[in-house]
Structure formats: structure tokens, C-alpha cells
Q: What sequence folds into this?
């Protein structure tokens, strides 16, 4: 590739650039030795779940790392979002972003709430107080901004918006573990924040989630909702479920916390290689994580401008896929165009969300992408721009 020879793209019948499929997710695994060591204790204690010693230690370490009074670890991020709505005793409609993973809105539906989709800014891909104001009315009971791409909305702006309108603000920070905004850590904004610890996220525990808050009463309600017996003081809650964090999840969480800074460094290197190559490719721009002083570098988001790049986003994805590069379109379509919302709600006017869902893609990043891989992937994006005329409309069949 680097020697200047033009190769035939795999989608036009050439050999593949990769003999494996390169995924987009983080997929960090501790070494087998460390994993075995951590799980041996679970085996020796014969203690699988029910807020065991590792779960308690993981919660302490998480709270410490995030600089927040309470970190309540749960089965997965989606359950954390459902618990958050119940702990805040919300009823009615909640403003949120449609440019998100479906779980943001689906968790509301499980909690008996109706999402009100606000548009996002084209520059940051996030909701703003202005886009929220555009959909605000008397039926709205809360605001739920979503922090994506290892960046954030402007969370302080939303705290001010919440106090101005007397509305609780809680964040879907599933993708923002370890980020800071100004001098503050993500985890401490609004009434509470919800993180995902899914394997594709930077702090992966196979499945997992964490709800953070500085509010002691809210924390007690969350703990009492998490399991039908309290692990702390008993307080009255509207409903309970099983959102427990198992000892196996907690063991992975502790290992992941040990390696967290190295993971960020690895991702940062991958992103800087993408940036240096894509800077020379017209119409393919690597998005910088918006609003954060420090990012977890979790995603490599590229905006494709079809006119200057020469190919549409989906044509580029097909050409990459043929090479073994499983780049993905996140988020497509906007959640407002998915069931049940596409059938139960009037179609909202979200031009920026619709445009981004057609033009944005994720390049592979995480444990399974090394520097050489990143360079090859970025160079493929450059090559496909050069060969755009040949590739237009190619479907590899
Ligand atoms: C991953 C994710 C979720 C869901 O978290 P799970 O742990 O997979 O349930 C919710 N919202 C956003 C924005 C996410 O990226």
C-alpha cells in the first residue's frame, strides 16, 4: 500500500487488505493469568452474586475514579437507564436525543415514559439547550441528554436549563466513562449519570452498567430498586427489579480499571494515525470529541461529504467491508424512525439527526486494532477517494 502501487480494491475483485474481520468495538481483554487469578477468589469463596466483596470493591474504585459520592453498579447500561427513570420518579414525556443507540429511548418506554426527540447540533452531534427548547412544553417532566463519541453535550448548560425550567436533568453517559469537562468529571453532572460497561465500551465487564450520583437519597432509592432486598438502608421505592452486578462482572471491572489509562493511550494513538492520514483526504473528516477537556478516545467517527469525497457513506462502507474492515454506521436510522416510535409518535422534524445518520461512520478502534492496522484502514479510505469513479455503485457481487 505505502509503496505507491495502486492495488485493485477487494470489492472489484482484488485481494482483501485483511485476512480477518476488524471490528469497531473496544473489546479489551485482560491477560488469561490476570483473569484466572481474579476468578479464583470467586471460586474459593463460592460467592457468585448478591453484592459480594468484589462488587463492593468495584463500586468503591469506580466512585473514586469518577470523583463521585455513589457509583451503583448494575447488570447493564439499559437496566441502569430504566432504574434511573424510576428512582427519579418521572412520569410523562422526557426530552432526549434521537441520534443515539436505541436503548436510550427504549429504557424510557420500559419505564412508562414517552421520549420527545430533540435535534442535535451538526458541529457536535449533541443536543443543545436551543434544540431542547424547541421541543419543550408543559407535558415535559425531565431532560435526558446523551453523551456520545467520547465527547459530551455541554452538561453545565443543561444543568442551567434544568433549574431554569424546574426539570430534573439526567444523562445517558454510556460512552463517556473517564471523560472530563472543564475541571469536572463526567459522572457528577445533573441528578445522575448512567454508564455502560458493555464489551464494546472502553471499560468493558462483558455486560455491565453504572449509575453515578452525588445525591445520597437518590443513591439509596437506586440501591433499593436494584434488588428487592436493600443492600443499605431500606427506603420506599415505586418498583424493584434484578439489576445486580455479579462477582464475575466485578472481577472484570477491577481488572479493567487497572488497565484503563493504557487503553485510553492505545485509542489515542489509533485516532492520531487516522487523523494524520485523513487530514489529506478531501471529504473524510475525523470528528474531534466535542466539549471535553479529556476524552476516553473511544470512537473514531468520520463524517463523509459525498460531493468532495466522491463516494457516499454507504458506498465507502461496502468497499471497506470487502477488505475485512467492519466499519459501521452509528446511528442509523435516528431512533425516531425506529419502532415503536415511528408508528406511535408523529414524525418529528430532525434535519441534523437525519443528515448525520446518512453521513457518519465509525472506523475500527480498540484492542484489536494496532498502529499498522490503523494506517492501512486510513490509507484505504484515501485510496477509495482516488478510485471513487470506479467504485461508485460497486456492490461486490
Ligand atoms: C451502549 C449504550 C447504551 C446501552 O448500554 P448497554 O450496557 O449495552 O445496555 C445506551 N446508550 C448509549 C448511548 C450506548 O452507547
A:
Amino acid at each position: 500500500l505505502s509503496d505507491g502501487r495502486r492495488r485493485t480494491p477487494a470489492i472489484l475483485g482484488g485481494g482483501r487488505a485483511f485476512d480477518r474481520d476488524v471490528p469497531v468495538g473496544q473489546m479489551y481483554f485482560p491477560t488469561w493469568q490476570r483473569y484466572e487469578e481474579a476468578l479464583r477468589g470467586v471460586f474459593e469463596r463460592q460467592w457468585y452474586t448478591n453484592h459480594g466483596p468484589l462488587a463492593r470493591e468495584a463500586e468503591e474504585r469506580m466512585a473514586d475514579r469518577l470523583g463521585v459520592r455513589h457509583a451503583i453498579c448494575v447488570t447493564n447500561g439499559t437496566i441502569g437507564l430504566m432504574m434511573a427513570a424510576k428512582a427519579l420518579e418521572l412520569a410523562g414525556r422526557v426530552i432526549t436525543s434521537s441520534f443515539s443507540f436505541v436503548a436510550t429511548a427504549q429504557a424510557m418506554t420500559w419505564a412508562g415514559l414517552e421520549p420527545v426527540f430533540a435535534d442535535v447540533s451538526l458541529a457536535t452531534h449533541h443536543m443543545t439547550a436551543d434544540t431542547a427548547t424547541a421541543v419543550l412544553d408543559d407535558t415535559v417532566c425531565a431532560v435526558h441528554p446523551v453523551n456520545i463519541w467520547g465527547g459530551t453535550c455541554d452538561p453545565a448548560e443543561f444543568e442551567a436549563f434544568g433549574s431554569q425550567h424546574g426539570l430534573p436533568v439526567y444523562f445517558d453517559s454510556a460512552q463517556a466513562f473517564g471523560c472530563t469537562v472543564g475541571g469536572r468529571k463526567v459522572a457528577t453532572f445533573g441528578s445522575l449519570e448512567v454508564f455502560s460497561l458493555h464489551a464494546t465500551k472502553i471499560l468493558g465487564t462483558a455486560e455491565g452498567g453504572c449509575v453515578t450520583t452525588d445525591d445520597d437519597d437518590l443513591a439509596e432509592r437506586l440501591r433499593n430498586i436494584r434488588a428487592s432486598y436493600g443492600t443499605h438502608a431500606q427506603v420506599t421505592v415505586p418498583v424493584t427489579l434484578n439489576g445486580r452486578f455479579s462477582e464475575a462482572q466485578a472481577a472484570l471491572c477491577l481488572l479493567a480499571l487497572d488497565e484503563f489509562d493504557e487503553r485510553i493511550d492505545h485509542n489515542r494513538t489509533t485516532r492520531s494515525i487516522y487523523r494524520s492520514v485523513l487530514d489529506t483526504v478531501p471529504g473524510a473528516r475525523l470528528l474531534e470529541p466535542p466539549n471535553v477537556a479529556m476524552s476516553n478516545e473511544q470512537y473514531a467517527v468520520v463524517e463523509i461529504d459525498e460531493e468532495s469525497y466522491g463516494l457516499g457513506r454507504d458506498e465507502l462502507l461496502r468497499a471497506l467491508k470487502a477488505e475485512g474492515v467492519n466499519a459501521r454506521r452509528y446511528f442509523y436510522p435516528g431512533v425516531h424512525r425506529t419502532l415503536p416510535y415511528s408508528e406511535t409518535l408523529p414524525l418529528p422534524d430532525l434535519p441534523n439527526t437525519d443528515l448525520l445518520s446518512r453521513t457518519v461512520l465509525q472506523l475500527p478502534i480498540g484492542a484489536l486494532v494496532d498502529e499498522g492496522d490503523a494506517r492501512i484502514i486510513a490509507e484505504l479510505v484515501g485510496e477509495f477517494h482516488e478510485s471513487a469513479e470506479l467504485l461508485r455503485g460497486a456492490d461486490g457481487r
Summary: The chain has 14 helices and twelve strands. The pocket of pyridoxal-5'-phosphate is lined by residues 76-78, 100-101, 103-104, 146, 148, 172, 174-175, 196, 198, 209 (CB under 6 Å).
